[in-house]
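W.,

You were right to be curious about this one. When I first looked at the sequence I had no strong expectations either way, so I just let the prediction run and decided to look at it fresh. Below is the sequence, 673 residues in total, followed by the output.
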Amino acid sequence: MNRSFIDFGLPIWWVLPTIIVSFGLAYWLYSKQGVPWSKNQNLILGSLRFLVVLLILLLFLNPLIRHVTNEVERPIVLIGVDNSASVEAIHSPEALKLFADQLRDLQSLLEDKKDYRVIMKPLVGDSLVFDAPYTDLSGFFRQSEDDLLGENLAAVLLVTDGIYNRGISPAYRSYMYPIFTVGLGDTIPRRDVAIREVKHNAVAYRGNEFPLRVDITESGYDGQSVDVQVRAGTDLVATEKSVLDPRGNTLVFFVSADKPGVHRYTVSVSTLGGESSKANNTYDVFIEVLESKKSVRIASKSPHPDIRAIRSVLEETGNYEIFVDIPSLQKPLEPRVFDVQILFDDMEPVGKGSGIWRIWSEPTKDAFSRVPFLDVAVKGRPDKTGPAYNSTFSKFKLNRDVARMKRFPPLSVPFGDYQLSGPAEVLLFQQVGSVTTTKPLLAVFDDGNERQAVLVGAGIWQWKLQEAARFSDEFLFAELVQKLVQYLSISESKQQFRVTRGMDIFTDGDVVFFDVEIYDDIFQPLEGQPYSLDITGADDISERFDFVFGAENKQARTRVFPSGTYRYQATTTVGEKRLSQSGEFIVNALQLEQRSLTANHDLLRLLSQKTGGVYAHLADFEKVQDVLLERDFRGIIRSESNREPMINIFWVLLLILGLLSAEWILRKYWGGY
């Protein structure tokens, strides 16, 4: 439905003079005596002249035609299909093909008979091939709601076995639409022995022992004994017998870290007769053995929740030895050399050669005198600002979903004028509401002799909690802290060619990428410089990738690799010099989908019950189909208002021309001149 209105650029009372002038001109012209037409004909001609003059005068008032268009937005029915490997492990290829055909038929019925907009998508990735290495049901709902934000999402049909191994339970979320569920898989536990999980550190240090905690589950083999072995490559490093318990078995092995580098360890459980799956009897882990840890000092005059937040994500890596220095609560630390010092407020560094990260919780007017590259002229009360990622920051890149920062709570920062100097870059800008300012929230300084960073507000512990609550993990916060501390801990090396792996450990499904820097002889970035990257697997087969370095292309993204250990060598030629960088990286197999094959249809029933949907097993697919066809999801009427100057509307000019033509033709026809 459409509606139109007229808005005048001048006050509405200006219309009255235009009417008076138009009437007066028409009356003056057609009130004369002795005309060759009748009184009624004279009235018609006068009316035509009145309308022509009125329309012309109204155009001088710059009227705007406001046109309102109402459009009905069709309801959206989203079909989410579980494409994980656990579905393929239970259903035959023929059953999966029949099931896919049923979904396509339902999509056609809903589009043709109900005029719904139907979107069918897999739970993971973009392909309906049943090989996804994990299932994240809550992540699917969250991502779908973000993708369809502001649109008419009327219902969701979730087709899954109910097994999830990432994220939180979808039952903990709230929904504004009904969820219809179709259960795949088998809810009856099969006879099986499986390694549910192997807990381990990502890194170990040479000369130490590291633990491998092995959790074993069984179904149908109570009281039987199995052999549990740990192998490094083909070498047996530990073995133990275990009697299976229906409550589960946990064994801990301690393995020596003898040689630096990346090592694969395979944990296996002996197979028993009649097992439904043997794929989950082995579990591969990859551990990097390093020479020594980096030391980090976190210093503050008093306890602060940011200390705990930063410390926890650094300790997760296993790469750092953390020293918390709070003079009011403990004895002074023993003198030593630190790789990085994180200083709250006016705490001072100890020793030299450390990377410095300053965090100001309550900055005073002279606080920034301790930061040589940032000058802040404080004015008035503190401001509340959120973080906005600077995508042009060149020192390192954040590879997680930086859009998550929009959800981070604001920090209290000094209000005033900010001025950076020297070789400093902004990593995070201050964002006020939806406006990203040019003021730095987190800035980094590197002059070749020292590296420093400054965060002008405190309270980033809230970022960690908010991300965990909203997205069920803390990946972006952890990456921000870990990469910043890693950057500050590295001593500046005068290398013209630097290639570092983008992540400590990749998982299957990740695109393997590297951060690259190339400089000329005076250490200016050498844009347009070609380089190659050779990646070699355990089978000694190499694959070459060619890239060109540039300001917008500082990452070398290769492809997805299967699990294993790989060597890489990057080469380039600068002038007459051939430069190379080499190293190793790990691709770790998640192995999540083979750990449990027992479907969880109780979760599906709960989701449908709490949202007003319907649950059915795959064998009763028609039940859900019939209910969806019976339901009447309503469209949403959206109105759009547009304003256009009347003088730009072609039909108005045609109307004026038509009225003038009609007046002229009638005058001629009735005998006038």
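Here's what jumped out at me. The first strand starts at residue 2 and ends at 7. And, maybe more interesting for your project: Residues 497-588 form a domain with the Immunoglobulin-like fold (CATH 2.60.40.10).

Coffee later to discuss?

I.
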